[in-house]
């Protein structure tokens, strides 16, 4: 556990876009999304795939990230 990383998550403003790296069996995984809730033991991040609840004790790194890029414009067919 990284005390600095779990502390960062616990003091970050709700609604901030963050990436949180947590320990899982066999390695680590990242959750990128918006911080929805945080208690003394866990936090909830809203990712593209839904809500993810993470134990603060499993966090190894965390930081704030910029907003996602704007959607790309659709490709247009080539003119004849």
Automatic annotation (TrEMBL):
<feature type="domain" description="Histone acetyltransferase Rv0428c-like SH3">
    <location>
        <begin position="13"/>
        <end position="63"/>
    </location>
</feature>
<dbReference type="InterPro" id="IPR056934">
    <property type="entry name" value="SH3_Rv0428c"/>
</dbReference>
<dbReference type="Pfam" id="PF24551">
    <property type="entry name" value="SH3_Rv0428c"/>
</dbReference>
<protein>
    <submittedName>
        <fullName>Ferrous iron transport protein A</fullName>
    </submittedName>
</protein>
